[in-house]
Write a structure and sequence with these properties.
The structure is a single chain. By secondary structure, the protein is of the alpha/beta class. It has one domain: Alpha/Beta hydrolase fold, catalytic domain (Rossmann fold), CATH 3.40.50. It has 13 helices and 8 strands. It has helices spanning 2-8, 78-88, 99-106, 115-129, 145-153, 171-182, 186-199, 212-215, 220-227, 231-236, 255-264, 287-291, 303-315, and strands at 33-35, 41-45, 55-59, 92-96, 138-143, 160-164, 242-247, 269-273. Strands 1-2-4-3-5-6-7-8 form an 8-stranded mixed β-sheet, with helices on both faces. Helix 2 links the parallel strand 3 (55-59) and strand 4 (92-96). Helix 1 (2-8) runs antiparallel to helix 6 (171-182) and helix 4 (115-129) crosses helix 5. The chain is globular and about 60 Å long.
Length: 316
């Protein structure tokens, strides 16, 4: 079950019409709410008694994740907890629901949503804050899929970039590597189908039933829009201070992926944190216990992650 779960965390949300969003979520003060547009609805937290704090815009990972880092399948409050700890360290944050979450809440899911739509949303957030003198700096912090989204959204108004568990290879290669670990042999089938998707303008219909959650015909347009970008190429274009963070307990994005980003951006700071997993929590060596961190908010955000991010931001 754990192996299947890790793969599912990569999925886009095409065709999902119902969800558990809004159930059991903490109430938010109205003053915290900030909706940029119909697709970008989020929460702005500003530390008290600090004039012009830096602002971190948090971009969540793949799948139907909300501003708190949760999805219908998982509730770990990772982004909410991260934002709170940054606030306690004098750093403002803006975090928002992915547009697919907003669509699910409205029960109007757009089957044509593409990876580029996520980039457009991130650009809209940067554009909203670029002339706001309330903040001294703007930093984009992208988690997992959000790392690549952030790279593509960065412009002259962004002062720093933080990649949290971001891949260093194209998403099809990352998925094939995951499949290889979980179902040796099936990875070759997955790779062949991805290559067909690259080579053909038509939808591929002869997909393995074991790979439908990743390569189903209705998901292929989204996956192709994501596969169009190489994170190593995109990070090499950046001219701003960059921090690359990964954990040695991350079962979805390996430290090797972080090293690929570092190789492409030699001036970037690379920090590998012992005991840090993919949802930014500190977990033990026991895999069964660590797996619970995806659905148990009681697991803490890794303290070294906070220290690393705060120190990087304060040096900008």
């Amino acid at each position: 079950m754990k192996k299947i779960f890790i793969i599912l965390m990569l999925l886009p949300v095409i065709g999902m019409a119902q969800s558990a969003f809004g159930k059991g979520q903490p109430k938010k003060e109205a003053s915290d709410e900030l909706n940029i547009n119909d697709n970008v609805q989020g929460t702005l937290w500003i530390p008290e008694n600090i004039k012009q704090p830096p602002l971190v815009i948090l971009l969540t990972g793949s799948g139907p994740n909300d501003r708190d880092g949760n999805s219908p399948m998982t509730k770990n409050d990772s982004h909410k907890q991260l934002a709170l700890l940054l606030k306690e360290n004098g750093i403002a944050t803006y975090r928002y629901d992915k547009r697919v979450v907003t669509q699910i809440k409205k029960k109007k899911v757009d089957p044509n949503t593409s990876f580029d739509d996520f980039v457009d949303d991130a650009k809209a957030v940067v554009d909203h804050f670029k002339n706001d003198k309330s903040f001294s700096k703007i930093i984009l912090a992208g988690h997992s899929q959000g790392s690549l989204v952030a790279m593509l959204a960065i412009d002259d108004n962004v002062d720093g970039f933080i990649s949290l568990a971001g891949s260093g290879e194209m998403i099809d290669k990352v998925i094939v590597a995951q499949v290889a670990k979980q179902a040796p042999g099936l990875d070759k089938v997955a790779a062949a189908t991805f290559q067909k998707m690259r080579d053909s303008v038509e939808i591929i219909t002869d997909v393995s039933p074991y790979l439908m959650s990743l390569q189903a015909p209705e998901m292929q347009p989204f996956m192709e829009s994501w596969m169009a970008y190489d994170p190593a190429v995109e990070i090499s274009k950046l001219k701003i201070p960059t921090l690359i963070v990964n954990g040695d307990r991350d079962e979805q994005v390996s430290v090797e992926q972080a090293q690929l980003l570092k190789n492409a951006a030699p001036d970037a700071q690379l920090t590998i944190i012992k005991g840090l997993n993919h949802v930014l929590k500190e977990v033990p060596e026991d895999d069964l216990v660590a797996a619970k961190s995806y659905s148990d908010p009681n697991f803490p955000i890794h303290t070294e992650l906070i220290t690393t991010m705060v120190n990087f931001i304060n040096r900008l």
